[in-house]
Write a structure and sequence with these properties.
Elements lengths: L9 E3 L9 E3 L2 H10 L7 E5 L5 E10 L2 E11 L7 E5 L4 H13 L4 E6 L10 H15 L6 E2 L3 E2 H7 L5 E5 L8 H6 L3 H5 L3 E5 L7 H9 L3 E4 L8 H15 L7
Parallel strand pairs: 1-3, 6-7, 6-11, 7-8, 7-9, 10-11, 10-12
Antiparallel strand pairs: 2-5, 3-4, 4-5
Helix pairs in contact: 2-3, 2-8
């Protein structure tokens, strides 16, 4: 049997889940199941809330414009949310949507919009980031949603970041080298210790003072992503892949 079932629609809900529970549907969820998918009564759906695992359920009408899901057996236990924080300079909406969804797919456990001196987009709404994260989780069989922090200035973010936790920051001025090897060279403390933070700068890159402050911190890895300059959203995906291979949950061990 496959570990994930993709043929059945998955739906995120906010309420606790347990066998024999009855989950009222929001108007948006009801409209999607009843009118977009044209799901008949008794139709099968998978539910998750990011805390209790995944459950099968059956769709039921409770009125002309209302419905609920009757919860059945649990199909998968809740998994670990992982330990990678993605801190990123906000982007324009379409590219920020892409970045958030791919970060969720790649296993980021926390998302932090960080305002640098060259950040052009400000005013990121956490509820919008959460909606994109939920959409990615529903589509990709993911059970754990990332924690989403409000915007924070880079200096304030670094002030409160635990010094014993590793920060990986992508720097176009770093010497071009194998990024996986560079990450693995950080040693077992980064690979098996506490959290890992990946910091992606703005489209114009970090300013010299920001780069100097990062390099002066303990447990910092300055990372090159090859000979080409990548857009910020592409860099986030590439760096997350390298981080998961070298130090994350893509490793065989």
């Amino acid at each position: 049997m496959a570990r994930y079932e993709f043929a059945t629609h998955r739906l995120f809900v906010e309420v606790p889940l347990a066998p024999d529970a009855r989950v009222p549907l929001t108007p948006e969820a009801f409209n999607y199941l009843a009118h977009v998918l044209r799901m008949p009564e008794g139709g099968r759906v998978l539910l998750f809330n990011g805390r209790d695992g995944e459950f099968e359920g059956s769709f039921a009408l409770t009125g002309k414009k209302a419905g609920a899901v009757h919860v059945g057996a649990r199909t998968r236990a809740q998994d670990s949310p992982g330990r990678i924080t993605l801190a990123f300079a906000p982007l324009k909406s379409a590219r920020l949507d892409y970045l958030v969804q791919k970060a969720v797919e790649m296993g980021a456990a926390r998302l932090v919009p960080v305002l640098t001196r060259r950040t052009q987009m400000r005013g990121t709404r956490p509820e919008k980031l959460r909606a994109w994260a939920i959409e990615a989780a529903e589509q990709c069989g993911i059970l754990s949603l990332p924690r989403i922090d409000p915007e924070v200035a880079l200096d304030a973010f670094l002030d409160r970041h635990p010094p014993e936790e590793t920060i990986v920051f992508c720097d176009e001025d770093a010497e071009v080298a194998d990024p996986v090897a560079a990450l693995r060279s950080a040693g077992p403390e980064a690979g098996h210790g506490g959290g890992l933070t990946l910091l992606i700068g703005p489209e114009g890159g970090f300013e010299a003072g920001e780069r100097a402050r990062l390099n002066a911190r303990p447990n910092v890895i300055r990372l090159s992503l090859g000979p080409r300059i990548l857009r910020a959203d592409t860099a986030a995906v590439a760096a997350l892949a390298a981080l998961q291979i070298a130090l994350g949950d893509w490793r065989a061990d």
